[in-house]
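Subject: sequence -> structure tokens, single chain

Hey, anyone have a minute? Need the predicted structure for the following. Not urgent.
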Amino acid sequence: MNSPRTMELWNSTVGRDFILVGILNDCAFPELLCATITVLYMLALISNSLLLLVITMDTRLHVPMYQLLGQLSLMDLLFTSVVTPKALVDFLRREYIISFEGCALQMFLALTVGSAEDLLLAFMAYDRYVAICHPLNYMVYMKPRVCWFMVATSWILAYLSALGHTIYTMHFPFCMSLEIRHLLCEIPPLLKLACADSSKYELLVYVTGVTFLLLPLMTIVASYTLILFTVLHMPTNEGKKKALVTCSSHLTVVGMFYGAATFMYVLPSSFHSPKQDNIISVFYTIVTPALNPLIYSLRNKEVMGALRRVLGRYVLLAHSTP
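Reply:
Had a minute. Here:
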């Protein structure tokens, strides 16, 4: 139960603004970094939107693998848009203020999308396991309703976790300082500003981080271990190559996402510094969403073929319009 003093401090925090001192304020060449982040954001917008368009428009891609990939593109699009435009506009205007309510909303949205992506990557690994290890029963195990159940589970569990963490994090009084030395409003940097004891909650954040990150990661490792055994026993080199190309794309994305998220939410706070946290946050909120669609599409003949068909259709429509 909160003491009257704590409640008084919390009441004095609500309605006050935070100051986001992100990576653009803490580097030697901020203009160059701003331009780089802008290019990466535009790349993320264009590539993820194109991939979503292709998966939606081309009926040949209306299978579980690509439906899950479409959800990943949607999550990447939302994730980077929650953070990047705010950071760029603040830098250009030289105003780094975010309201208490805005900070809570940004934290909630980033946690929801990030946690949903974390769970979705595990479901995508299971999809690849079924496709490679049980190809004849693929449409039995991965019926459309099973696929959409996976998507709904990812979003609902992520929503509930994010809502609980956002409410509890923002209930702390912040009297140390209102300067957040981070790219976005996130749990670890905000708890550093709390003037109430947050040690028990930090333990809960650690346990939740382990649950949301390591359990799906164990699923991914188990799926790919079984896939590897199956691939090694394939009779043809062509089948092995196709399976390995498909899986290598997913494993690259998994490595980038889980590596950054594990550093942020599983490693003890003693391993963190504001500069390191800023670099990591740029990686999983800006760099990864820009690279994911390229990793999945450039080496995938089905996606590239569908992209050519969809773009060709639009070109024909443009030429036929008087």
